[in-house]
Amino acid sequence: MTAPDGAAAPDVAPAPDGASTPFLLSAFEMMTPVHQSPGLWRHPESRIAEFDRLAYWTRLARTVEDGGFSALFLADVLGLYDVYGGGIEATVRGGVQWPVLDPAVAVPAMAAATERIGFGVTASVTYERPYLLARTLATLDHFTGGRVAWNIVTSYQDSAARNLGLDRQIPHDARYDLADEALHALYRLWEGSVEPGAVRFDRAAGVVADPDRVHPAAVAGAHVRVPDAALTHPGPQGTPYLFQAGASARGRRFALDHAEAVFAIGPTPAHVRRFVDQTRAGLTEAGRSADAIRVLAMVTVVVAETDEAAAQRLAGYAEHVDVAGALALWGGWTGVDVAGLDPDAPLEHVVTDANRSALAAFTEDPSGRTWTLRDVAEFVAIGGRGPVIVGSPETVADELQRWQAETGVDGFNVSAAVRPADLERFAALVSPELRRRGVLREPEPGRTLRENLSGAGPALPADHRGHAFRTAG
Amino acid sequence: MTAPDGAAAPDVAPAPDGASTPFLLSAFEMMTPVHQSPGLWRHPESRIAEFDRLAYWTRLARTVEDGGFSALFLADVLGLYDVYGGGIEATVRGGVQWPVLDPAVAVPAMAAATERIGFGVTASVTYERPYLLARTLATLDHFTGGRVAWNIVTSYQDSAARNLGLDRQIPHDARYDLADEALHALYRLWEGSVEPGAVRFDRAAGVVADPDRVHPAAVAGAHVRVPDAALTHPGPQGTPYLFQAGASARGRRFALDHAEAVFAIGPTPAHVRRFVDQTRAGLTEAGRSADAIRVLAMVTVVVAETDEAAAQRLAGYAEHVDVAGALALWGGWTGVDVAGLDPDAPLEHVVTDANRSALAAFTEDPSGRTWTLRDVAEFVAIGGRGPVIVGSPETVADELQRWQAETGVDGFNVSAAVRPADLERFAALVSPELRRRGVLREPEPGRTLRENLSGAGPALPADHRGHAFRTAG
């Protein structure tokens, strides 16, 4: 298997010489056997069987910090993928985002093992109670010294809904309306309830905190009611740094309203360029600075000492792909079940009304390639829905610089197929090359994640809607 | 101020010579400026202003582990105390269990800093969704190597209820009925969903986990519905070790059904003896072994090189008591507001119909002592509702042995007035004396918390109701 034709952007010109805007790196991970690469846990270098040991994660955090990454981002799901074959068999057998551990509780331990890197924690605004979520994230902000980000998700799986007290999903757009209301409650709790400096342990005055600087949240929304003061004082960032990755129209609008960083997933620079341009324009329309959101493009990187060795390495990865696991993952994303269809027949022979739309990206491949379901699975299994960059450190650096120049992204969310080997190899081989070229924008110790990613202060900037919730500090 | 007359048990005889059953130690803490001793944060040795830094807690964990403690237990509340004066002013000014951080997220970091000690995490079965709570606690069990306990609370504050989606409290007994249902769901998720060994990363077979060893939880209760399989596999203990501290009749019955350890709080050995006897008898009636529950008595220890120095030290503590803060704490526990009453008048002059029952323990002091509200505050502020043991290491060891002999408790839950000094001093001064006498039952590395506390295996014993939920492993 190779990355599909076109994935490395055939439709744009090479990067101009001298295009060397420094960019950010984030590591895209998940506390589960298979994040985006079903079957790759079988690779001889995989150590992901240790995913349920804390030391695996503290070591990975140090690895990517040493590699100049700014953040380790932890995805999450709250249900099992059960679309493929109408059950969980391929999901369980393949370890496809299952078992999945709670990412939040590992963060302080990873922070204690590092000095500069930030940690992105996924938590569902649909299923967490705002009053408790505010406290958990504030606690993480305290315990990391301001190095935590919250990845806001609304949770898209029916399997999550039915195990969490709902009979079925809240409809998509209503989920985002509820999320808007929850965010307002959270801003009240993080920005408007306990003023910065209110907790001061003044022995002489006998005051732990000034009562006149602690305010009721006074949130009385249609769905969210939080009348009282927050359970704790805000951490160094106040509101934790906010990630969001919604791809729908409503999700994009939510991101323009709230996010400080978003992920772009697209197979070509042209796709990502459109996303970046829409984001910048949308921000301006929304009254925020055009660069108020950091855009990170997802990439999977397979690196070796030479281009040839890297190509061989990728070929070796393909031997381990779990086709059923990949189709279970793809089924979860799309809601389409292709179990029972011939994996080796050209797609046009297995297209039905039910799967036509989900398969359109492949049946209508502009390169003219004829895909099979096995090809789709292999495409998903290495790189997910983003590009796979394969080559020597120089080639990978060239490609990342080219992507940056052609798309205008602020950096990359680097995913690994063989874990943790691909991130270890990136840190060992690619990061030194990026440093040599002066294009790696690294975090500084003693600064919050927001400072390191935005370049501005530790708190929400004045053009963010959460800023208006602030009480005098 | 001294500990109130009678607090050190005037109504029982001295311990018999040779009574040397080894006992367990747990440290009773909370991630907040004031846990049980309002005002003592002002003591010159207090470092509790660092409570919002992770290093404070990892260091404390090492301290008590070095002192031979088996567990560090973290209390929690989900609302502000707002009874005293009808508001939060005394609570905020005094830092009375506010701000309060999320205890769960610090546990893996504390586990990484230690080898033997277990961690008790308080979480509310009323407000946490069982499907997510199961995952969080299983994750903690994995990341601590089986060293986590869950302290099951149903949350008693109206202030928690109204900020967490309810207009007011669920009535007390109904909360426990709901808790029973939630526990059954949790047993299904921890014991019955993913069989031990099902997750095995078999490269040759291409199997992360065996689908036929993963079962739907199939919980369809009146209030709790969890149809699907757990989000993750169980940790080394399966069900985490279960603490519970309910004092009501319904709460006691719940403990007899579910708990593996409980806390006893009583001012005299006679009080605690009754509690222990009732627990042993209740366990037998419930079909469990009479020693199936470990009973730990709460004590506050003030130790110095000599008895005289310890008495002086306690006198110094009294100078820092925060009377309003103590009455805010007591008001939260009892629901009775004594703001506006003369703190220095004999209690009989300030008793009203509203506070009569809550003050009865003091107005009807069998020693005949006449109390004032200030006395009540000072009593609460050093030692909470349990005894204060004051003296040299030898005296403290004598007293702990006497309490153990007279009450039959399995150990002590040691609370600190000046934090972390009192626990550091206990570890430095009392623990060596207990070791010299051979009465300190210490945890062993490489064992789970359940093994270290119960002396049996890592999983729930056969006479625990959760055991029946187990599927073949």
From TrEMBL, chains A, B:
<feature type="binding site">
    <location>
        <position position="76"/>
    </location>
    <ligand>
        <name>FMN</name>
    </ligand>
</feature>
<protein>
    <submittedName>
        <fullName>FMN-dependent oxidoreductase (Nitrilotriacetate monooxygenase family)</fullName>
    </submittedName>
</protein>
<dbReference type="InterPro" id="IPR016215">
    <property type="entry name" value="NTA_MOA"/>
</dbReference>
<feature type="region of interest" description="Disordered">
    <location>
        <begin position="439"/>
        <end position="473"/>
    </location>
</feature>
<dbReference type="InterPro" id="IPR036661">
    <property type="entry name" value="Luciferase-like_sf"/>
</dbReference>
<keyword id="KW-0288">FMN</keyword>
<feature type="binding site">
    <location>
        <position position="122"/>
    </location>
    <ligand>
        <name>FMN</name>
    </ligand>
</feature>
<dbReference type="InterPro" id="IPR051260">
    <property type="entry name" value="Diverse_substr_monoxygenases"/>
</dbReference>
<keyword id="KW-0560">Oxidoreductase</keyword>
<comment type="similarity">
    <text>Belongs to the NtaA/SnaA/DszA monooxygenase family.</text>
</comment>
<feature type="binding site">
    <location>
        <position position="176"/>
    </location>
    <ligand>
        <name>FMN</name>
    </ligand>
</feature>
<dbReference type="GO" id="GO:0004497">
    <property type="term" value="F:monooxygenase activity"/>
</dbReference>
<keyword id="KW-0285">Flavoprotein</keyword>
<feature type="binding site">
    <location>
        <position position="248"/>
    </location>
    <ligand>
        <name>FMN</name>
    </ligand>
</feature>
<feature type="binding site">
    <location>
        <position position="172"/>
    </location>
    <ligand>
        <name>FMN</name>
    </ligand>
</feature>
<feature type="domain" description="Luciferase-like">
    <location>
        <begin position="40"/>
        <end position="410"/>
    </location>
</feature>
<keyword id="KW-0503">Monooxygenase</keyword>
<dbReference type="InterPro" id="IPR011251">
    <property type="entry name" value="Luciferase-like_dom"/>
</dbReference>
<feature type="compositionally biased region" description="Basic and acidic residues">
    <location>
        <begin position="439"/>
        <end position="450"/>
    </location>
</feature>
<dbReference type="GO" id="GO:0016705">
    <property type="term" value="F:oxidoreductase activity, acting on paired donors, with incorporation or reduction of molecular oxygen"/>
</dbReference>
<dbReference type="Pfam" id="PF00296">
    <property type="entry name" value="Bac_luciferase"/>
</dbReference>
